[in-house]
Amino acid sequence: MSTQIQSRWVKALFPAFTVAACLAGPLQGARAEEIAAADRVVVHKSEHKLYLYDGSRLLGEYKVQLGLSPTGQKEREHDFRTPEGRYYLARRNVRSDFFLAIQVSYPNKEDEMRARKNRWAPGGSIMIHGFPNQPKHPASYYQSNDWTDGCIALSNSDMVEVWMRTQDNIPIDIYP
Known about the structure:
The chain contains 4 helices and 8 strands. The protein is α+β, with helices and mostly antiparallel strands. An 8-stranded mixed β-sheet has the order 3-2-1-8-4-5-6-7, covered by helices on one side.
């Protein structure tokens, strides 16, 4: 990413990062150079956990909420399942309907073949994101229920940390 683009992102997101960083316990008082970057993301759907790793070193563990129908592999659009498999962090969206969003490279070739075999559209727009910017429910609902269309949702403060510790094109492995 060019320095110019990074500078624009920092200026655009500074107010949100400042507020969220104050709420994020593990990052309080940390200098930027002390925040280790992850080289891979792992999600265990059955545990409702997202893990950040740098090599074999665990950098962080976060509670996540999943699609409305979290059990099983995502097979087609509108099935409300969170995919399973190897993907990559594809791009970032600061103008999402949710607090920050990182796109996951779903569907991969296997997902596309499975959907094509069944004459289904595989779906897409799977993201890691925070809570809705315009919530329809109290915060407690988003913290304790699977509520997404198939995405991986974190609290806003956890989303800031994941955003800061990851880069595009690193792998994300999503397990049952």
